[in-house]
């Protein structure tokens, strides 16, 4: 879960894990947990997976430790802080999702009644604000933003950073075809350098194979810019994504026209 807005804690069989805006919360499969909010409202980007969500292999050495060139290290991970056994009796519902179905289980004891645990499986938090951006003289390819990987998809972080510093660099990304993946971007904060017509909490989906690039004018606009304050989370999937019917009512039918020059009836 990416915490866009809101504060609180994840209560699980491993204890309590506090979270703040900008946190990624990695909760392993099979963890009994609940989200307790300390703010009235919150906004999460939730990514679920049948496989483990882990730091990319190329950031780790043969022993699994994060390497020096990795954009984060073990010190940046926050693990559950507090574990208090809960031995109340009553009726407690636990919802289990399996085979695409949610099933309710009713327990007559508190499902988080645990006195301790050991091992290397536990939920953890990693703040996007601790992601050290990788920059260069010329434009760096998207994998430099990679934060996590799972079976068939990756999660990337676009964070405030210095732009390419070659004297003739054009900081806006190049036009490209994402032939291998569908691209989903969630815009959390700041001005997104390559896009028009998006705002905070917008989600874009660029299906694979569609050549795309900066919006008209954005390439020229980027020349001479030194840095960006953008904050966004990208999910690249290596299998086609299917949009559910319920999402269609949130679609901005004009988004595709935002690539037209501004004077051709483009509202963005
Ligand atoms: Fe793209």
Could you characterize the architecture of this molecule?
This protein is mainly β. It folds into 2 domains: 2-83 and 114-128, no CATH class; 134-259, Jelly Rolls. It is built from 2 helices and 19 strands. The strands form 7 sheets. The protein has a 5-stranded antiparallel beta sheet, with no helix packed on it. A 3-stranded antiparallel beta sheet has the order 3-2-5, with no helix packed on it. A hairpin with a 2-residue loop joins strand 8 (89-98) and strand 9. The radius of gyration is 21 Å and the shape is globular.
Please render the helix and strand layout as text.
Elements: E1 2-5, E2 8-12, E3 15-19, E4 23-26, E5 33-37, E6 43-45, E7 77-78, E8 89-98, E9 101-109, E10 124-127, E11 146-150, E12 153-158, E13 161-162, E14 176-177, E15 182-189, E16 203-206, E17 211-212, H1 218-222, E18 227-228, E19 231-237, H2 245-248
The structure holds fe (ii) ion.
Fe (ii) ion (FE2) binds at residues 176, 178, 183, 206, 212.
Taken as a percent bin, the fraction of beta residues is 25-35%
Radius of gyration: 21 Å
**What's the arrangement of strands in the largest beta sheet?**
11-12-19-15-16
State the helical fraction. Answer: under 10%
Q: What is the SS-derived class?
A: mainly beta
What would CATH call the homologous superfamily of the largest domain? Jelly Rolls
Tally of structural domains: 2
């Amino acid at each position: 879960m990416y915490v866009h807005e809101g504060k609180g804690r994840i209560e699980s069989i491993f204890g309590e894990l506090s979270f703040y805006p900008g946190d990624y919360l990695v909760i392993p499969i099979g963890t009994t947990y609940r989200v307790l909010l300390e703010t009235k409202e919150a906004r999460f980007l939730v990514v679920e997976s049948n496989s483990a969500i882990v730091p990319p292999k190329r950031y780790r050495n043969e022993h699994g430790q994060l390497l020096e060139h990795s954009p984060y290290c073990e010190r940046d991970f926050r693990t559950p802080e507090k574990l208090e056994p809960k031995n109340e009796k009553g009726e407690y519902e636990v919802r289990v999702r399996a085979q695409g179905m949610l099933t309710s289980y009713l327990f007559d004891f508190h499902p988080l009644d645990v006195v301790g645990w050991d091992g290397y499986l536990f939920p953890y938090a990693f703040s996007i604000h601790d992601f050290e951006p990788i920059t260069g003289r010329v434009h760096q390819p998207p994998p430099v933003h990679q934060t996590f990987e799972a079976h068939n998809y990756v999660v990337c972080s676009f964070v405030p950073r210095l732009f390419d510093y070659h004297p003739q660099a054009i900081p806006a990304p190049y036009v490209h075809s994402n032939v291998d993946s569908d691209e989903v971007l969630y815009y959390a904060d700041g001005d997104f350098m390559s896009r028009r017509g998006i705002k905070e909490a917008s989600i874009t989906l660029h299906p694979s194979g569609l050549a795309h690039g900066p919006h008209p004018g954005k390439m020229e606009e980027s020349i001479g810019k030194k840095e960006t304050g953008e904050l966004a989370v990208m999910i690249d999937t290596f299998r086609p994504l299917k949009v559910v019917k319920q999402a269609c009512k949130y679609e901005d039918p004009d988004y595709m026209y935002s690539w037209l020059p501004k004077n051709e009836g483009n509202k963005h």
